[in-house]
Amino acid sequence: MPDSTTLVLKATSPRFISENDKIKFDTPVFLFTNNPATGYFDPSGVVISEQNMAMPANTFFSAELIEGTALNKDFVLQFFSEDEDFYVNLFNNKTRGLGSG
Whole-model pTM? Predict the structure, then answer.
């Protein structure tokens, strides 16, 4: 039987954002482990190779919620270009000319 307690997601066509073009980038593999108490898969690791799924002991996760009001053009342009869907949908608010009523 396959192990169904771990979910492995491999990034495809990732885009590496860096000021230094000489930095080598290895595609990450994201690991999620089933939490029996909730039934959800919780993040459990990020590794570089599917061959070695062991996480270094000193690895930890950190996340920060960024409120919608903080998503200004300068901030978003660090991660998206002006022609990408996320940027267009966030900053090019156009109505379809529907009347009220």
Answer: 0.44
